[in-house]
Amino acid sequence: MRESSSTWVRNRNIVRHTPKTLGSVSQTVIFGVLVLVVGLIYVTQGTKATSYDYELSKVESEIAELQAQKEDLAFERSKLTSIGANSSSEVAANMEVGQVSGYAE
């Protein structure tokens, strides 16, 4: 004999569990929070890139300034080297000291 489904049966649960789901409001709130978090991450990464760009620009200007100083010092060194070479040469030793003899009127 079989019993009908509406009666109590041994070793069978009479409770039906319904799957738990989120409501439409909860889904909308979670989606909004996720969009907000991704937006904040995007903004922070963008400002980091901008700050790196400013630092790179600063370093490049320092490099250009140091290269200009290097060129100036190389010119000064060559000038001093040529003066030293000229004063110790034989031709410079035999030269007479120049004097102003007078002006023509």
What summary fits the major beta sheet?
none
Structural class: mainly alpha
Helix tally equals 2
Q: What are the secondary-structure elements, in order, as H or E?
A: HH
Helical residue percent band: 55-70%
Number of strands: 0
User: How many whole angstroms does the radius of gyration measure?
Assistant: 46 Å
Ends distance: 152 Å
Q: What quaternary form is this?
A: single chain
Task: List unreliable stretches of 5+ residues.
Answer: none
Looking at the structure, what is the overall shape?
rod-shaped
- Strand percentage, roughly? under 5%
Average pLDDT for all residues: 82
Protein traits:
105 residues; mainly alpha; 65% helix
Report what the structure shows.
By secondary structure, the protein is mostly helical. The protein has a domain of 64 residues. Helix content is 65%, strand content 0%. The longest helix is centred in the middle third of the chain and has 64 residues.
